[in-house]
Amino acid sequence: MQFNFKDSIGVRDNVFREGREILAPYIAYVQKTIDDGGYDKEEGFANLPGDEVLLTAVQTLIAEKVTGKLVYVVVLGIGGSNLGTKAVYDALHGFVDALELKRFPKLLFLDTIDARYRNALMILLKERVTSPEEILICLVSKSGGTAETIANAEYVRVELEQNLGDMSDRFVVITDPNSPLQKKADEHAIAVLTVPEKVNGRFAVLSAVGLFPLAAAGIDIRAMREGALAIQKTCLSLSVEENPALASAIALWALHKEGYTIHDTFFFNPCLESLGKWYRQLMGESVGKENDLHGQVIHMGITPTVSIGSNDLHSVGQLYIGGPKDKVTTFVVAEHTGPERTFEEGLFAGLVPELRGKTPNTIITAMFEGTKAAYKNHALPFMEVVFPDISAHSLGSFLQYKMFEMMYLAKLLNVDAFDQPNVEAFKTETKRILK
Amino acid sequence: MQFNFKDSIGVRDNVFREGREILAPYIAYVQKTIDDGGYDKEEGFANLPGDEVLLTAVQTLIAEKVTGKLVYVVVLGIGGSNLGTKAVYDALHGFVDALELKRFPKLLFLDTIDARYRNALMILLKERVTSPEEILICLVSKSGGTAETIANAEYVRVELEQNLGDMSDRFVVITDPNSPLQKKADEHAIAVLTVPEKVNGRFAVLSAVGLFPLAAAGIDIRAMREGALAIQKTCLSLSVEENPALASAIALWALHKEGYTIHDTFFFNPCLESLGKWYRQLMGESVGKENDLHGQVIHMGITPTVSIGSNDLHSVGQLYIGGPKDKVTTFVVAEHTGPERTFEEGLFAGLVPELRGKTPNTIITAMFEGTKAAYKNHALPFMEVVFPDISAHSLGSFLQYKMFEMMYLAKLLNVDAFDQPNVEAFKTETKRILK
């Protein structure tokens, strides 16, 4: 994975030095958390990719539950309980699931309780699933009390049992140790994987939350963990040149002070859109805070947006170039490779003379370079992340890099990366209305 | 369609009066454009839903090209050439296309030139399409020279002709009159529908751009047009109480002056996400401008974001409630209805006591009301649009209402709603690199 933070970001070296000095003690603290191992601090999420006990637990359960007959894995979860899983799955397979009708097993995500989607899903499952071995339901809720997830679980269970009989054996519960959900699962002999309590949901993609359903879908979770571990080393360096998480955290912090209140992650591979949505939660919840670490009201936050190239050049590109100077951009691209025909004079090809002698991969690469050049000409600050390929390893690296970036950015902004107190505002009001 | 602009928006009556006075001459101008008919002004898009010649042209071509054998309609287009079509299709069908494996015809969208998606699409088409009548390709490019669209058209044509022979008869070109693409199509006896030149792409959903592919997919385009015409009448009223486009344009303008630089459209029906992406282009390109109407550099713009409930309460909800006061929200919801079981004491249901005796529809409605209450408690400005149902008629109303809103908002912000000069910045750089 390659990074370019400095060429077009417009942040001076002394600002990078200043940020590094602020963060140095915290990086040492994170390093110590890793050296100590375990999950007694929120930063302990960094210990997940090296946790062999976790890997063994996941693999043992996979061996028990997954056979060649598996067709659908249904993930019941919302927010941190499904966004990371969906990010990885969509990048590798989900992006073309509607086209690859014969590739199985497929992951299906049921998050909110919208009746239309759930009803269509239930019709599909009832038609296509003829024996319990063909389906696996991952019920993911850290607290064990997420209304949407529990409601969907109840629905799916009752509907499937009409045709297939007792489904306890085909549920896997992923939750905090000792949550009410864990107890309920134990009573009914439903398999459970636990998530360390202090690992926050949006930092949990490399816990059982992501590993189990991804492994069930045949994704190489070892490679994903190795990707995370490989980049983690660089993310603990005190050198801004070496440490991508440090560099981008400082850039975002410095630009926020100058009025850049929106962070657009602009992916030039459409299969990475769900990865953008995972990052949107990570940034939104981690640094969007009413109070700072001392309890002062500050209404801090950087608004994350997700753009897709080349599509969005034809949508919001005009705003990005011509509009207010309030956005810092991270371009993310994986090289566009693979065999492609060149365009010669054809029925349509002649209408765009630049196409001649080029392949589609050459053209989209030129569009990416052209977009960066236009940003540069208009003095719009940007960073760049280049994936060597779209693989479990690369995705693992990106996920871990971004979680480190966010932890550092929160520290620079003087907010708690690991809480989300205002989410209670919705829940309290909803409960009041339901009563 | 019901609207609530005033209760929670925090804009005073005198500001609404001021906005209305600024806009009154322009509303008269738009009314005259409609009375005069035709397409010699950009505002002429308002004449599309009443254009009987257009409807006849579309229906005649549908009768010629669409039979019961049609399985796939492939839309080749990007930006304004596919976002509106996708908005309507996804709301009605596309949202569950990956689950409803037997429902046909399906629309498939090929926009950017990413190789993975195109290759998967080509494999599907080559496997499933055994005769030309089963497929229809809509090639949509107003200028006729959009690189991605032309490249994809060439690819799809060459690949399909390997198995199916000459496909000229199964292409429908939708473009500006006298574009090079129209001429090329004429040479090869390919059917053409034209789009009035002055109808800008992002205001073109009710032209042949949207009508033809949607009708080919079996969507009731008459109802869509009727929905647009019905709301258009109210969108020409000089009363802020009656005219939703006037009210929301003024609210967005007034709040922008107070530092609300982000407009979040927060849909509580996940099937409307693509409608959000259509609006994202409409707002991004129409009011994101480097210059005002007098050529002064102003870097105007309001950044559109799209949120989905209840999912995003578990993602960016923390940021929205606790973070900076820079967002104005439009909540959009269609009533959640239909038969649903109530939750009683079940294996999982007991874990969330509020579920008992409720249906999922009751719960998601409570979440929507709870969200609004939380916004109100935190003095976050919002408006509300309630769809009576998710139908072609309602979608037509919403699309037309939003296009009127944007036209009015641009006028208030003193920018040209109908140009996108900065998009050339990307194109010029890309061409330079390709040379």
Tally of separate domains of chain A: 2
Spell out the helices and strands of chain A N to C. Answer: EHHEHEHEHEHEHHHEHEEEHEHEHH
* Most extensive chain-chain interface: A-B, 126 and 126 residues
Query: What is the highest CATH level, the class of the largest domain in chain A?
Result: Alpha Beta
The CATH superfamily of the largest domain in chain A is known as Glucose-6-phosphate isomerase like protein, domain 1
CATH architecture of the largest domain in chain A: 3-Layer(aba) Sandwich
Give me the side-by-side strand order of the main sheet of chain A: 1-12-11-7-10
What does this structure look like?
Two copies of one chain form a homodimer. With 435 residues, chain A is an alpha/beta fold. Helices cover 46% and strands 14% of the residues of chain A. Chain A has two domains: 2-33 and 226-423, Rossmann fold (3-Layer(aba) Sandwich); 38-219, Rossmann fold. Chain A is built from 14 helices and twelve strands. In chain A, helix 6 links the parallel strand 5 and strand 6 (191-194). The mean pLDDT of chain A is 96. Chains A and B meet through helix 4, helix 5, helix 6, helix 10 and strand 8 of A and helix 4, helix 5, helix 6, helix 10 and strand 8 of B.
Helix and strand topology:
2 copies of one chain form a homodimer.
Chain A: E1 2-4, H1 13-36, H2 52-65, E2 72-76, H3 83-92, E3 106-110, H4 115-128, E4 135-140, H5 147-164, E5 171-175, H6 180-187, E6 191-194, H7 208-216, H8 221-234, H9 244-257, E7 262-267, H10 273-287, E8 289-291, E9 297-300, E10 303-308, H11 317-322, E11 327-334, H12 360-377, E12 382-387, H13 392-413, H14 423-434
Parallel strand pairs in A: 2-3, 2-4, 4-5, 5-6, 7-10, 7-11, 11-12
Antiparallel strand pairs in A: 1-12, 8-9
